[in-house]
Each structure stands twice: as C-alpha cells, then as structure tokens.
C-alpha cells in the first residue's frame, strides 16, 4: 500500500504545472531522473533538477559532439 501512495504522490507532483517550464520538468522533490512527459503518449524527459539527469544530459551532448568531430 505504501508503494501505491508514493506513486500517487509522484504522479501528483508530475501533473503540477508549476514543475514544468515549457518542455522541461524541474522538481527537486521528485527522486526520479527520467519522468514521462506531461502527455505520456509523447515519451519521456529528464528531471532537470536531478543531478544525475543533468550528468546524463551532458554526457549525451558530449557524445554527439564527439561523433560530429571524430567520425
């Protein structure tokens, strides 16, 4: 039951428009690094308030730059 309550709280935080800045989701209280977009049919996005997702985003950008210059 506690698992459902936690998921319910996370879903409520996710649907709060105050945590969305355009296409970017930023919520320090949400422990998830990757969250569904506001419309779940559109896929997933990073929680840009999480330090791990910021590291992942920087890593992806560096991979793209490295691919562009070295291949």
TrEMBL record:
TM segment ranges: 52-70
Keywords: Membrane, Transmembrane, Transmembrane helix
Species the sequence originates in: Marinifilum breve
Protein name from the UniProt record: DUF5808 domain-containing protein
